[in-house]
């Protein structure tokens, strides 16, 4: 039986490696200049990649490592991102208390613009088909002398990215190189330079200005070598392809429709003051749940998971009809909603909002539970958009001198708002792993060092991704059959068992 070259590679000393290296990963034909060597090269400057760099720079053990970040988008735009106080980006994430604690620990939390961030303490989740409900009220779990506990903290992704960039830059530019507007054009194994180091088992990246950048024609490509190459480069990760790591997964044939909404201020005053609620209603007949998550100043962000056809319909509606559809989705029966999803689209110039008239009429004949959100009264211009929903999980997060984090490693259904939280969990674990390796004099790119990261994260992420997938499937069976009964039993029973509910709430907080 013969082992594959790539499997053997990490266990063979460098002087003997020539025989076991895959030729595919050998670097180019003509003698090239020695690449610049970094301890850690991170491809991808989204929240996961920037989080990793910020964490490495924040720790006294790893702050002196020579690190580079390569991001194809313009990070100057992310640095100077700004919106008026009454406007919000439509890409918003709910951060669990563990993610918030991690951001605090690395000194990034204090750099968030807190006027644009909103905590919530209650969650109302119910099944639109059976009406069964589970309410997550953290106040019940807290003694009257404690502040009500936060379920999650809503932040615009852009606010988080800007804070992480500031945190990285506040650590100074010694041993730090940020390649913005720069794309990785190739990654290959280096070579054994007679007059330099043996990089034959090291990833060497060729990076060049992104096509849209004015520098793309004037600046020559640069070559950099990585002791550890981190793929934080999203769902289509080039780093994952280089490392030949397979993914399993599927497309949900669903889109997440997002929008920034204004709410009526008729919501009853909350007690204790300032307590806010997130709402999610499962709509099996329409392909997924609709969620309304609070933002400051009586605003909210929408994530409505539905079929591509319904998503296209919703996006094509004029603002007033879109608002009526969102209000209807939290209030009307599946039959009513299916009817309204087929109504003729009315042009923006039309004076009569047919959707609103339909909603008003149907509401008179629909009993309303007491846990519905306040009425939506406005939708921010150009904030309605949609994203295809997918499930992907890499078969492993590590390979020699490579680690994957964030969406490069896993993409999950957003119904529990956990994708970015899992990414930040990866960041915390990988930065600890690197810290451990440095403290113990180990090579940070060695598989032996990286095992710890993979062991901590792969199973934990698979569990959360699997639960979200199961919930998606369970809540996509319309009608009143056995699955719907099971669903309603599940939610109602959980709602009456404080201990089980408490356990679920701690899971949602990101705790064990
Ligand atoms: C509708 C919706 C709602 C969501 N809501 C939530 C929520 O409430 N809570 C939550 O936790 N998560 C949520 N998520 C998930 C969350 O948005 C993602 O998990 C998170 O943004 C992924 O971050 P990342 O840094 O891993 O990847 P990305 O944000 O995808 O960053 C990857 C980066 O790599 C760069 N890149 C790619 N290729 C190259 C290359 N060749 N060279 C250089 N750079 C490259 C890209 O430009 C990009 O900046 C939601 C997702 C969706 C779709």
Quick recap:
The chain has helices at residues 5-8, 47-58, 75-79, 97-105, 138-141, 157-170, 238-242, 308-316, 319-329, 334-340, 354-363, 419-439, 447-474, 482-496, 498-508, and strands at 36-43, 67-70, 92-95, 118-120, 122-127, 133-137, 152-156, 176-179, 182-189, 203-209, 222-231, 247-263, 277-283, 288-295, 299-306, 376-379, 385-394, 398-399, 402-404, 410-411.
Topology (SSEs and partners):
Blueprint: H1 5-8, E1 36-43, H2 47-58, E2 67-70, H3 75-79, E3 92-95, H4 97-105, E4 118-120, E5 122-127, E6 133-137, H5 138-141, E7 152-156, H6 157-170, E8 176-179, E9 182-189, E10 203-209, E11 222-231, H7 238-242, E12 247-263, E13 277-283, E14 288-295, E15 299-306, H8 308-316, H9 319-329, H10 334-340, H11 354-363, E16 376-379, E17 385-394, E18 398-399, E19 402-404, E20 410-411, H12 419-439, H13 447-474, H14 482-496, H15 498-508
Parallel strand pairs: 1-2, 1-11, 2-8, 5-13, 11-19
Antiparallel strand pairs: 3-7, 4-7, 5-6, 9-10, 10-11, 12-15, 12-16, 12-17, 13-14, 14-15, 17-20, 18-19
Helix pairs in contact: 2-6, 2-12, 9-11, 12-13
The chain binds flavin-adenine dinucleotide.
Main location: mitochondrion
Family: Belongs to the UbiH/COQ6 family.
Pathway: Cofactor biosynthesis; ubiquinone biosynthesis
């Amino acid at each position: 039986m013969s082992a594959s070259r790539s499997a053997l590679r990490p266990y063979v000393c460098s002087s003997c490696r020539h025989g076991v290296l895959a030729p595919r990963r050998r670097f180019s034909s003509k003698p090239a200049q020695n690449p610049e060597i970094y301890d850690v090269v991170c491809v991808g400057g989204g929240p996961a990649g920037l989080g990793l760099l910020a964490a490495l720079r924040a720790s006294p053990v790893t702050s002196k490592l020579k690190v580079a970040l390569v991001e194809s988008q313009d990070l100057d735009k992310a640095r100077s991102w700004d919106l008026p106080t009454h406007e919000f980006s439509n890409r918003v994430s709910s951060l669990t208390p563990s993610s918030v604690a991690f951001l605090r620990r690395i000194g990034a939390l204090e750099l968030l613009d807190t006027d644009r961030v909103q905590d919530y303490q209650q969650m109302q989740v119910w099944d639109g088909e059976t009406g069964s409900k589970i309410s997550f009220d953290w106040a019940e779990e807290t003694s009257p002398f404690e502040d009500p506990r936060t379920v999650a903290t809503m932040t615009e992704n852009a606010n988080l990215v800007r804070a992480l960039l500031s945190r990285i830059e506040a650590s100074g530019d010694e041993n730090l190189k940020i390649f913005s507007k720069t794309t990785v054009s190739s990654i290959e194994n280096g070579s054994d330079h007679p007059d330099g180091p043996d990089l034959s088992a090291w990833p060497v990246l060729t990076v060049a200005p992104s096509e849209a950048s004015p520098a793309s024609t004037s600046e020559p490509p640069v070559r950099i070598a990585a002791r550890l190459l981190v793929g934080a480069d999203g769902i289509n990760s080039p780093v994952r392809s280089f490392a030949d790591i397979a993914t399993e997964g599927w497309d949900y044939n669903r889109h997440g429709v997002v929008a920034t909404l204004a709410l009526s201020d008729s919501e009853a005053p909350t007690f204790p003051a300032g307590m806010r609620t997130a709402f999610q209603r499962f709509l099996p007949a329409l392909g997924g749940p609709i969620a309304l998550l609070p933002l400051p100043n009586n605003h909210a962000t929408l994530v409505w998971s539905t079929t591509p056809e319904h998503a296209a319909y919703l996006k094509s509606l004029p603002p007033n009809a879109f608002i009526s559809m969102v209000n209807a989705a939290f209030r009307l029966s599946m039959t009513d909603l299916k009817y309204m999803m087929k109504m003729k689209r009315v042009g923006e110039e039309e004076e009569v909002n047919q959707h609103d008239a339909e909603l008003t009429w149907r509401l008179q004949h629909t009993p309303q539970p007491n846990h519905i959100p306040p009425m939506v009264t406005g939708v921010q211009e150009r904030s309605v958009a949609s994203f295809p929903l997918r499930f992907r999980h890499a078969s492993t997060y590590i390979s020699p001198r490579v680690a994957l984090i964030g969406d490069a490693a896993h993409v999950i259904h957003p119904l529990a708002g956990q994708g970015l939280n899992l990414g930040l969990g990866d960041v915390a674990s990988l930065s600890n792993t690197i810290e451990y390796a440095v403290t113990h004099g180990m090579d940070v790119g060695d598989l032996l060092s990286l095992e710890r990261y993979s062991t901590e994260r792969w199973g934990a992420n698979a569990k959360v991704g699997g639960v979200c997938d199961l919930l998606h499937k369970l809540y996509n069976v319309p009608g009143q059959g056995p699955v719907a009964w099971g669903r309603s039993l599940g939610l109602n029973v959980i709602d009456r068992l404080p201990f089980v509910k408490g356990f679920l709430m701690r899971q949602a907080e990101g705790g064990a």
